Amino acid sequence: MATSAKQHIFMTGAHGYIGSVITEFAIAEGYTVTGLSRSETSDAKLRSLVATPVRGDISTYDVLTRESANADIVIHLAGTWRDHPDNYSEVVREDGLAVDAIVKGLKGSGKPFLVTSGTLATAPNPNGGETSESSPLREKPLNDRIASERYALSKAAENVNVVAMRLAPYVYGRAGSTIRLLMVFASNSGEVTYVDEGSVKITTVHVEDAARAYLLAAKKGRAGEAYNVTYETDVTFRQLSEAMGQVLGLPVYSRSLEEMVNAGWIEFLVKFISTESRGSNAKAKKELGWEPKGKGILEEVTLGSYVELAKGLKPAALKEAFVFSSKIS
């Protein structure tokens, strides 16, 4: 459905995994999109999506301010986690400066400003149930991404229509993201591995459903609020591992945390795959009118986009770097 009036979106991370799908769907709805771009490769990706690239990154504050002032909606997805894999406090600091620059262009306008966070910041429900956006936070989170969310949401007090989108830790679909990396790693190691019983429940969302949620939040999100962008909460990591093992034709093993770290797994990644997460999407469904439509994660792995990926994975030929960092939250 086209928008009633042609509106313009400025987006950081518009050429990335989630951002490119948001851009695709926004263009289809009748929006125009300008995306922040650091390279000619990113320029080409944006143009292929019928978006307009603008050169800069989240430290080019004048560009962030100008483009935000010229937009009807701003969506912030980019971060500097790749530049500081071992220093997340620097990621938080740099993100805060980028938010300040965007807010400078938006202040007092009432235009929607969507920032990106994650549901892993929330502590598990002690009774095993789902958690909500108002549930207690973890005392020791995997990273300090929630600090970026809190800072951005504080700008609502300055008459900025800021909304936080808390993504599920397992965004999947279109053969990308975390599942792709796990499958590459498994193919290189010759096995799929989960921690201990693999019984921790994970939270998932299809990338196309996530993209739709962002566009709905731009229309209906309430200033100063966070929304869980989640779908399934009953899948265990063991089930996911078995699905990956099935499509890759690899054995699936249980290992202890210590065994996995000693075998060369990044400690952050081991903690990530062994962390319980059950984030409810009730608020997003009620307030945004959002309804997830994509395949479930197990079906997507065994019958969907990851089937072709699995066919192309050859351990000796793979040169894809497996760099897992605190971007995941």
TrEMBL record:
GO cellular component, one term: cytoplasm
Chain positions covered by the region annotation Disordered: 117-140
Stretches assigned to the NAD-dependent epimerase/dehydratase domain: 9-229
A Pfam family annotated for this UniProt entry: Epimerase
Residue ranges, compositional bias (Polar residues): 117-135
InterPro entries given in the database record: Epimerase_deHydtase, NAD(P)-bd_dom_sf, NAD(P)-dependent_oxidoreduct
A GO MF label: aldehyde dehydrogenase (NAD+) activity
Stated name of the protein: NAD dependent epimerase/dehydratase
Biological source species: Gymnopus androsaceus JB14
